[in-house]
Structure formats: structure tokens, C-alpha cells
Amino acid sequence: MNPLFFPEILKKLKRGPQVVLPKDIGVILAYSGVGKNSLVVDAGAGSGWLAISLANIAKRVVSYEWREEFAELAERNAKKAGVEGSLEIKRKNVLEGIDEKEADLVTLDLADSDKAVARAHAALRKGGMVFGYLPHVEQAKRFFDACATAGFSDIQMLEAIHRNYLVREAGVRPENTGLTHTAYLVFGTKK
Amino acid sequence: MNPLFFPEILKKLKRGPQVVLPKDIGVILAYSGVGKNSLVVDAGAGSGWLAISLANIAKRVVSYEWREEFAELAERNAKKAGVEGSLEIKRKNVLEGIDEKEADLVTLDLADSDKAVARAHAALRKGGMVFGYLPHVEQAKRFFDACATAGFSDIQMLEAIHRNYLVREAGVRPENTGLTHTAYLVFGTKK
Amino acid sequence: MNPLFFPEILKKLKRGPQVVLPKDIGVILAYSGVGKNSLVVDAGAGSGWLAISLANIAKRVVSYEWREEFAELAERNAKKAGVEGSLEIKRKNVLEGIDEKEADLVTLDLADSDKAVARAHAALRKGGMVFGYLPHVEQAKRFFDACATAGFSDIQMLEAIHRNYLVREAGVRPENTGLTHTAYLVFGTKK
Amino acid sequence: MNPLFFPEILKKLKRGPQVVLPKDIGVILAYSGVGKNSLVVDAGAGSGWLAISLANIAKRVVSYEWREEFAELAERNAKKAGVEGSLEIKRKNVLEGIDEKEADLVTLDLADSDKAVARAHAALRKGGMVFGYLPHVEQAKRFFDACATAGFSDIQMLEAIHRNYLVREAGVRPENTGLTHTAYLVFGTKK
User: Is A7 in Cβ contact with B172 (below 8 Å)?
Assistant: First the structure.
């Protein structure tokens, strides 16, 4: 199987088993339209890959992480990636409340992300988006339903599948084996 | 079929039949690691969707477009999207040369993108990336080979496939019909 | 979008909106290993496409259909396809019992296929397989669980996705749009 | 990664590295409409998996194999599978000619399958189909073009992709890694 591809900013970072991969980070970036003027709230930081990718682009990213071990790993990774000026790791459980207001995007990658959806709605500006990263169908359905309950519009659930190709003298063909699933991606817009 | 999803910045823009869609824009953003300090060269502008998505993030984007009609459309779209401060539409055929130096990313979406690969290499900084958007396998193969000839490393070809889900009382399932192909995506890194 | 492909035996048949397509029929044939000596039980017949495809191969197929309208349609289609000698349409609700014994394969395509799984187990020979055709994830999960409860082994759930290609002077590429989902396929083996 | 699934008739057979898998065998069965009255020509036999799967269904299968080692392996496998009564392994290179006439299906899995297409056309009945199993795009294109040259109609090229699911207490999701490519499948019909 082909090694996974990582951009320069992520290449040297330490990672746990469950980082959000570039395949899915790309969907978050493109669907949210996050840009250099954006304020983003992220939870939980984990090893910080998604938060760092967002901080490489956005004006400011606040990433919630109540587990000290991960908070420190995320901060070390942010320094290595050179984005520590735009990224604050906040030692707090996002389920206890989001301090930021008028955020452009809230990204949620927790075991119980659906429980944070109402707080995400409160923290977002009109037109802002919530995103959930959900490995199982049942979680994705719960998150989708929580978005509807919290008042989000244009809620959608999707998967991003990448097919990598071998290009050689013998000819072109997709790799024989590869990554076939990471997570379902759910987006909602605050109208 | 589900309507395609577009972020706020693209939603109101005019588009021709061949714009690069968010599905593929996301891969470019995530794989290149383009950020708020980046310099990006793009060609051709077309209706400007990719250039605008990049200008929403990067410090500066220069998009080559020698066809006056498209150059004007791209400029109008850039104003509507509010990114005209970061995006220059340059009336010039990229095959005649790239003026910029030390670019972080060069994105190519031309009928004969492979012919611009050597110029892209010259315009990039060390560690910078070239990207090609190529509808047919044969074009993608030619672009891939041109990257090797021009001295690029870590050349890779892939497709991004999105599966959209219906989430309803009756249950969860993928849409019955949908978008099944746009283009092959090829990336190379200047080492 | 490309027209769907049908083999000679199915081409001239009438079809309702929900026939099992060759894409999925192929998985049933290959995974079950059904052959010219096989006894197959099918329910419900619907317009008979799956039953006819099986009867083209197996020694004998008994297809349950309690709705007279569909039973007649399936019989007419069987005659057109020339397989009426191997296919019996039985006017009976499969949930009320399966008369056959030592079947090699039981195929279920009902709104509540999970309720027929125990009866399928009783009708099968050792080594025989049950198959469920289930459009929604939740149905597929219920069917999967019902297979476990009924004592089936090697239970598996999968989807079959076909990508159709355009091959032209301009080059080779997948179709731009197409069929992206029909149903989840679940198989269990009686050990 | 999930172990590949094989039906009873294939489970105990020896296999080389390049057998046609049930995923693709299913497409051949469903698209060709091969049945218990069919005559099938196959080449090359290899370890005999495709030929055996066809012989489990068809009245008669003749599989060409000029390499003695593989011819013997295919014959041993046919006996183990119990289909030796319907399957003849013919020691002959199919490129030197097909002896059978009025075949319903000719399946080709050779390094240079495109060179056998004209002979396949001659061996088929009107309405019969040729099938090619082609790992690389370029081979598939050559085979497709050879079908057009030989006078075949309704020529089509496709891939079959299976997604396997994990169904557990924690929830339902596709396997994280898996088989992502075997071969392009090309079919043509003699009109």
C-alpha cells in the first residue's frame, strides 16, 4: 500500500492513531470556505493535526483539549509546524461551553460530538458552519439529527474516498489495496 | 441527484461548465498545505473558481488567462467573492513564461497542462508543489511523465470521490445517483 | 448518464422501479456459488428479475410472492426469458413459512427481510447461504443481527459499486455521473 | 483487512497470485447471462478459477491453456471443485485459433488478450459476448479498440468495487483498508 501523503506542515509532526487525514481536512477547508480572515473553534485537539491545518490558513484557531497530555502534544506540534501564533490550545472540555462568539467554523472530533452541536450553534456567526468527523454510521446519524434539532440548515453527510494510481512503464492502474474508510463527514450551516 | 455543495464565497459566482469543484479544490488545499503566507500561481483562470478559493486563503495569487472574456469574468467573480485584494488576473498565456519566483504552489488546468510543467518547476521554491487537473487518463499520464522529466519528486496521481448520503426517517443510505468523475489530480514536489 | 446494462435474458422484460440490477445479481451468483444443480428459494418475486436470473442457472428456483399482480408479472417475465421450466412462482407470504428443504441459497428482498431469516435457516442445507438486499444501513444492520441470532456464520455486509468508463478518441475517463447506490448486500452461511 | 470471500466451490482450491476473484466473476456471470445451457470458451486457464466458476453453471466450458504446468493445476482444481464433467482444459494457445463455434461467451485473461478478440468474434454465436480482464488502463483501451475493429457492439469498460462493512456493537462502518483494484472489465456483444 502506498504511504499516505502529508503536506510539508504536517510531515514532521507526531501523530496518534486517529488524526484527521489530509483527505478529510481538504473537504473541511473547501466546504467551509475557511480563509485568512476566519475564526475557527476546534475540539478536541488530539495531536493537533486538524487544528494546525486550520491555523495555517485562518486568522485564529482555538482548539479545546481537556486532556493535558494531548494539549501538550498539540502545542509541541503547533510549534514544529510554525503556526503557534494563530493557534491557542485551550484546556477545557468543549461540552462545558464555548467562549468564542461569531466563529466562522466549529470542527468537532469527539467521541460524543453530537452533544456539542448546540454549543457550536451558539458560537457561530450567521452563515457559519459546524463540522463533525464521525467514524460510524450511527454516530453520523446522531450528529446529523443533533444539527437539525439545534437549528442548522443545509445539513449534509458525505464520505471522501481517494483512489491512488500507479503510473509506470507497464501502464496506469489504481493501487491494488488502500485506505477505504476513515469517517463520515457531516456539515451544517447556521442560517 | 443532490445539488452540488458550494461554500459561501463561491455560491453567488457565475460559472462555466468546467469549474474546479470544491471536492477537488479541497484536495489541492490539503495536499499543498497552502496557507495565509503562500504565493500561488494559477493557470488558466477560466471563471476563476480555483483562483478565488486559493485567494481566500493565500497571501497572493496570480492567475494567468490570455482569453479576455474569461479574464473579465474571473475579475468580476473575484470582486463578488471579496478576494480581489489577493488575486491578480494576468493577461498572459502561461506557456510563454511565468514571471513569479519562489511560488509555493502552481496549479494548472489547461488543455495542455503538461507543456507548462517545466515553467512551473522554475517558478516554484524548493519544497513547492505543482498541481494538474486532468479529465482523461492519457492527459494525466502525460502530465505525470512531464513532472518526472522536469525534475519533480513524490509525483502522485489520484481521484477524489465523494459519496453523499440521504439521512431520513426511513433510514440512512447513499444517494442513488451522483457525480462519479471530474478529473484525475496529479501533484509533484520540487525537492 | 450511461444506460444501464442488461444481459439478453433480462433485456426485454418489464420492470418495476425496484428490480435487483445485474451489478448486484452478479455478487449473489459469485458469492453463493449457485450452479446448475442448485435449489434456490427467493422472496419476494416482485417483477421477477432476480428469480429469473437465478432460474437461468439453477436446477430449480421457487420464488414466493403473495401479491397476485406481481406474481403474474413475474410469470409473464419468466416465459419471455424462457426460464419458466425452472422457476415456480409460489403464491404465499414467505413469512408464513418456507416449504422447501435442503436449499442451496435463499435470497430475500422484502421490506422486512430480517423477519424471514430464521425460516431461511431452516430451509437451507448445511453450507447453504442466505442473502439479503437492503437499501438502508439500518435494515442491513437488522438483517445482519438476525443472521447472527438465527445461527448463521461468516456473516458479511458489502456494497458493489460499478464505475463505467467512456473510451473515446479524446481519451479514457469514467462517466461524469452514474448510479452510486442500490442496496447493501448481506450474506450468511449455515454451518 | 478482511479476508477475501470465496464460495464453497472455490474455497479449497489452490490459487496463483492472479486468479480472477468472485468480485469480478460475478460481473461476468451477470452481464453475460451465462446459464445452464451455455457454451463458454475461456483463455488462459491459469489456475482455473474463472473456468471452474463458469463450469459450475454452464453446460460446457472449454478453457485454453498451453502451459502444461497450469493446465495440470487447473485440471486438479476442477476435480476438487467437482466440475470436471463440464470443463475441458485444452492444451493450445488460443491465439492459434478457437475450435468451438456458436459459443455464448468467450472470456479472455491473457497478457495480450486484444490479439484474441477477432478469433473470439468468429467463435461466438450472434448475441454472444466477449469479455476481457485487463489490469491496466492501456490494455483495457487496446482491448476496447480491438473489439470495435472486430465488429463487436455495445462495447463497455467498467470496474467493480466492493466495499466491505464492519458490523459491531460500536456501530457500522466500512473496513478501513481493503482491495481497491483488480482489473478493468471490458465486454462486447456480437450483433
Answer: no
ipTM score: 0.96
For A145-172, give the DSSP string: HHHHHHT-EEEEEEEEEEEEEEEETTEE
Name the residue in chain B with its Cα closest to that of A22: B30
Q: Is A84 on the interface with B (CB under 8 A)?
A: no
Judged by DSSP in three states, C178 sits in strand
Rounded average pLDDT over A101-106? 98
- Contact list, B172 vs chain A (CB under 8 Å): 137, 140-141, 157
Please indicate whether residue B121 or residue B10 has the higher confidence score (pLDDT): B121
Interface size A-D, in CB pairs within 8 Å, comes to: 62
CA end-to-end distance (rounded Å), chain C: 43
Q: How far is Cα D66 from Cα D142, in angstroms, rounded to an integer?
A: 23
d(CA A114, CA B73): 42
Say if residue C102 is exposed, middle or buried (CB neighbours under 10 Å; 0-12, 13-18, 19+): exposed
Mutate to test the interface with D, among A180, A182, A184, A185 (most CBs of D within 10 A): A180
> Which of C21, C173, C185 should one mutate to test binding to chain B, selecting the residue with the greatest count of B CBs within 10 A?
C173
CA nearest to A59 within chain B: B36
pLDDT, averaged across chain D: 95
Cβ neighbours of C19 in B, within 8 Å: none
Residues 20-39 of C with CB under 8 A from D: 22-23, 25-36
Instruction: Record the pTM.
Output: 0.96
Chains touching chain C, criterion 3+ CB pairs below 8 Å: B, D
Computed over its alpha carbons, how large is the radius of gyration of chain D?
Answer: 17
Asked if the Cβ–Cβ distance from D178 to A178 is below 8 Å, we say yes
Judge whether residue D144 has pLDDT over 50.
yes
* Cβ-based burial of B102 (10 A; exposed 0-12, middle 13-18, buried ≥19): exposed
Mean pLDDT of chain B: 95
Is A162 near chain B, with CB under 8 Å?
yes
According to the model, what pLDDT value does residue A3 have? Answer: 59
As a 3-state breakdown, chain B gives helix, strand, coil percent values, each rounded to 5, of 35, 30, 35
Question: How many CB pairs below 8 Å do chains A and B form together?
Answer: 142
Angle between helix D22-32 and C22-32 (nearest 10) = 120
C167 contact D CB<8A? yes
Residue A159 and residue A181: Cα distance in Å, rounded?
8
Which is more confident, D9 or D172? D172
Give which of A172, A164, A152, A131 is closest to A28, Cα–Cα: A131
Residue A94 has pLDDT above 50, yes or no: yes
Residue range A37-77, pLDDT digits in tens = 999 999 999 999 999 999 999 999 999 999 999 999 999 99
Q: Tell me which residue of A42, A51, A45 sits closest to A10, measured CA to CA.
A: A51
Residues comprising chain C, all counted: 191
Distance CA B121, CA D9 (A): 55
Q: Is the pLDDT of residue D185 over 80?
A: yes
Measured CA to CA in angstroms, residue C41 lies from A46, A123, B116, C116, D128 at distances of: 52, 57, 61, 12, 29
- A56 within 8 A of A31, measured Cβ to Cβ: no
The rounded Cα B14 to chain-centroid distance in angstroms is: 17
Helices A22-32 and B22-32 pack at an angle, to 10 degrees, of: 120
Judge contact between A21 and A182, C-beta under 8 A: yes
How far apart, in Å, do the first and last CA atoms of chain A sit? 43
Nearest C-alpha neighbor of A26 from the set B12, C36, B28? B28
- Quick check: D172 contacting C, CB < 8 Å? yes
DSSP state of D12: T
Measure the CA dihedral A66/A69/A75/A80, to 10°: -150
Kindly state the cell numbers that stand for B100.
513569479
User: How far is Cα C4 from Cα C2, in angstroms, rounded to an integer?
Assistant: 6
